[in-house]
Prior knowledge:
mainly alpha
Amino acid sequence: MIHHQLLDRMASRVNAWEAANDRRAIFLACYALMTRNMLQAIADERFADAAWVHALVHNFAQYYFVALDAYEHGAGDALPEVWRQTHDLTRTASVPPVVHLLLGVNAHINCDLVLVLDDMLRGEWAALSHDQHASRHRDYLLVNTIIGETIDVVQDTVVERYSPAMDTIDTLFGPLDEWCTARLIRNWRDDVWRQAMDLIQAQDPQTRNALRRMADVRALERMHLVVTGGEFGARVFGYSQRLLRRLKLR
């Protein structure tokens, strides 16, 4: 079994939030499961560059905790707006638990991940060969597979604890909602990679700053779409075709 300081940090927060009935526990409990599976995949040597992926996992988590600390201490200059609104919405009882999950996923992928990739790749990209570029991208894409492997466990061990009605929905719809959720996240992550490549290639500081700010704007747009979809919408199959296209599922 993987034991790691980062997992302990996540578990400590989740336990405290669950004891306080704080719905921020929903996303972080799922994120902890994903992180555990990522660390296991690294240990199992599934990635071409384990050290780089290990750094990605930790830098990614650091963005989450920096935003969380900024939210809790009122440090607005370090807090993306999408995270402020996502955390605020956990105090709204009418928001379904599965929506809380996707709101956290949205903020962390569509805002944080763009910036993490820029941080990690910008300094090395020009010196890497074409094959090394491709290897980085393959490792990045392998994460999608691990996300897909994790979704059923997330649903069974976290989401259904907060929303037992989802068990009935899963019986009716089978694996469709898990497939759609994995597809949605994969498409978001593909979009994030393209945004990161634009950032890396931008030389003008003003352009780079504008692109980094745009990550928060895009995440806010998708946050509002997730909220608009409601509980069935958050399970993805309930969205209209037009909304699915806007969410980047189609």
